[in-house]
Design a protein that fits this description.
The protein has 130 residues and is mainly beta. It has one domain: OB fold (Dihydrolipoamide Acetyltransferase, E2P), CATH 2.40.50.180. Helix content is 7%, strand content 52%. The chain has two helices and eleven strands. 25% of the residues are buried.
Length: 130
């Protein structure tokens, strides 16, 4: 039996991206973060989440894509050394993948999953938090 991974699939700029379920702490409705000074170009500020300040990163800016924006935007809180919030257009589903669906990105780094006619780029929450 092939190994199965579960990913949270997020929509961003007309594409789909997957984050491992084990790295996603929670998903909340997006609210504008409080701006803070930062050298990180995709840092949008911080939000207070259950009494803890969480940095908010613009995933579209980090990946070099254009976000659709809108009322359905979500903040996906991923756990790493420290939690970080990633702004996405929407959260689509939790998807189970077997290893036969996952392959390396041609001429690049990372992995991509084929799900029928869909392609889901798999992200690593630990790398996105830096």
């Amino acid at each position: 039996m092939p190994a199965v991974d579960q990913v949270v699939v997020c929509a961003l700029g007309g594409e789909e991206y997957g984050l491992p379920v084990g790295q996603v702490r929670e998903i909340v409705r997006y609210s504008a973060p409080r701006p803070v000074a930062s050298d990180v170009p995709w840092m949008r500020g911080v939000v207070s989440l259950r009494g803890r300040l969480v940095p908010v990163h613009d995933l579209a800016a980090r990946l070099g894509v254009t976000a659709a924006g809108g009322a359905s935007a979500k903040l996906v809180i991923v756990e790493g050394d420290e939690p970080v919030g990633l702004v996405v257009d929407d959260v689509v589903e939790v998807l189970s993948l077997d290893q036969a669906q996952v392959e390396p990105v041609p001429s690049g780094s990372g992995r991509i999953a084929r799900v029928g006619e869909r392609l889901v780029l798999l992200l690593d929450g630990d790398e996105l938090g830096t």
